[in-house]
Amino acid sequence: MKDQIKKVAVLGCGVVLFLSTVSYKSDFFEIAKQIEIFTTLFKELNMNYVDETNPAELMDTAINSMLRDLDPYTHYWNEQEVQAAKINNLGEYTGIGATVMVRDNKIIVVEPYKDYPADKAGLRAGDEIIKIGDVSIANFEEDAGELLNGAPNSMVEITYNRQGETRLTTLSRGSIDIKAVPYYKLLEGNIGYIVLSQFNRNATKETIQALKELKNDGATSIILDLRGNPGGLLSEAINVSNIFVPQGELITTTKSAVEKYNKVYKTTNQPVDTSIPLAILINGRSASASEIVAGSLQDLDRAVILGARSFGKGLVQRPKDLTYGTQLKVTISRYYTPSGRCIQALDYRNRDTEGNAVRIKTDEYNEFSTRNGRKVYDGGGILPDISMETSEYSSITNALLLENAIFDYATEYYYSHNLDKPEDFEFTDSDYTEFKNYLKTSGFSYKTMTEKHLQEAFETAEDEGFDNKISNTYTEMEKIIEEEKRMALDEKKAEITSLISDEIIKRYFYKEGLFEYSVQQNPEILEAKKVLLDTGKYNKILQ
After folding, report:
1. For 190-207, how does the pLDDT look when each residue is reduced to its tens digit (9 = 90+)?
2. Dihedral sign for Cα atoms in the order 380, 382, 385, 388
3. pLDDT band at 423; cut points 50, 70, 90
4. pLDDT digits (tens, 9 = 90+) for 475-491
5. For the chain: N or C, fewer Cβ within 10 A?
6. Reduced to 3 states, what is the DSSP secondary structure of residue 175?
7. Would you place residue 10 in the very low, low, confident or very high pLDDT band (cuts 50, 70, 90)?
8. What is the rounded distance in angstroms from the CA atom of residue 527 to the CA atom of residue 505?
9. Where are the beta strands (DSSP E) in 363-439?
10. 92-177 and 183-387 share one fold
11. Catalytic residue numbers?
């Protein structure tokens, strides 16, 4: 009987091996088949199409269209983009020293860095660059922003518009050092405040340096500000967490369909301080590596988290080298916090009728426990222990940011108001009324999801011949929604005012001035200071 069981077991193993081999060969054959089909199609198309084709552009379109259906983080990078990614991770590049955005085929200066080339040349936020050297931006079909980069000390002439006036300036490109920790300071109550803006290769080193200096100056508790931090290197997220927890602590695990990508990441270094009270600030723009740090320290009951639910990017990417210096940045796994939470918010495997990824519903969230037994949940981002209204981005706020309404208003404000010191600034009720009037004259508008679904329903009614019967109701509902949208500007005044204030202060006093203003006025920082100064409340939250 035992021999028969052994034979069956061996036979079973053989069947599993055979099936897995067949599956692998089947997948390989299907991939090879599709590549052959595409190769012959691509060749025939380029050789026979009625007009002249550009093979490189066609291939870029094909690749990007294919990847777009997977998730927003799987990308094909050409040689220039590969180099840009390396520079970003190193924390330095050569350029004009300013953040810019491309809008309606225009390059807009978003933020000139203090004392860097763009700032010294007189460029300001809101300036529209219309010509770089002899190249007109309007006629340039590629990435015009690349024209701003160049060799160190090389000169470039820039023509730009400011408030309807065309101006000309010349600047010398320079080496730009991107700090992971652009600001830290000892606040009243012996509270150290550290801004960690990105997880490049210098993130851990700069955070440790800031922490040690603050402790030497007398800091007995720490605020770590991760708001707006989009993430970066996974290794740096592990090491930054390691600053505050012992060696050997689990920080995150990754799970994948490919077994070799299933990893467990624990701290490997000696910590700097495992007991100093710690508050971490996050918001809807804190993503990826920021969420690993906030999530792990929350699960380990090592920090109190304040602000708003984080972005919810729980997908891990890895670059794969391709030919001719190109790369595929491909999503390989999902990451999980120590309690077992996956904080990925959007499910790209399931999409709605418009092709948008579906957000996980609240009633589908799963409950997990921190080390001390506190309840935490998955389903999208890290939910803070203390939620702050001023950190949350409602639909009206997101629309204002998407349409650059706050940015454009701050430009208008800067050229019509004088401000000598950050502490003198106050955004009053009359200023907010002025902002709402600006929105009316600027043509700002947005559609809520309710409006989109309502319009789809009415269009269906037209197809079915019911539109005449419900048109009055439809018009009435449109009026109600418009009124609700107007009211939303007042209901969300706190969060909108906070963003407007930040943008305005930055115009006059750069990011450095904004930090100085924030440590005195920002609601999240003030709340974090309260919690850290109240030992009983701090311990109660973590217990």
Report:
1. 999 999 999 999 999 999
2. negative
3. confident
4. 888 888 778 888 889 99
5. N
6. strand
7. very low
8. 21
9. 367-369, 375-377, 386-387
10. no
11. 288, 299, 313
pLDDT higher than threshold 50 for residue 4: no
pTM above 0.90, yes or no: no
Q: Are 481 and 451 in contact (CB under 8 A)?
A: yes
Inter-CA distances, 25 with 11, 19, 20, 49, 389, Å: 21, 10, 9, 35, 55
Distance CA 318, CA 239 (A): 19
Burial 406-429 (b: 16+ CB within 10 A, else e): bbbbbbebbeeeeeeebeebebee
Please report where in the chains the tokens 């002439």 appear, as a residue. 157
The domain segmentation of the chain, as residue ranges, is: 30-69, 92-177, 183-387, 395-521
| CB neighbour class for 123 (10 Å; exposed up to 12, middle 13-18, buried from 19) | buried
Q: Evaluate if residue 353 carries a pLDDT over 60.
A: yes
pLDDT tens string 96-132: 999 999 887 789 999 999 999 999 999 999 999 999 9
424 within 8 A of 504, measured Cβ to Cβ:
no
Tens of pLDDT along 261-297? 899 999 999 999 999 999 999 999 999 999 999 999 9
Distance CA 311, CA 285 (A): 5
Total residue count of the chain as it appears in this document? 543
CA pair distance 58, 72, nearest whole angstrom? 20
Enter the tokens of residue 1.
């009987």
228: nearest Cα among 305, 176, 279, 284: 284
- List alpha helices for 336-421, DSSP H: 395-402, 405-414
Phi, psi of 368 (to 5 degrees): -135, 170
Radius of gyration of the chain (CA): 27
Give Cβ neighbours of residue 72 (< 8 Å, ≥ 6 apart): none
Residue 312 sits at φ, ψ, to 5 deg, of: 95, 45
Domain 183-387 has CATH 3.40.1280.10: no
DSSP label at residue 100: E
Q: Which of 365, 370, 361, 391 is nearest to 250 (CA)?
A: 370
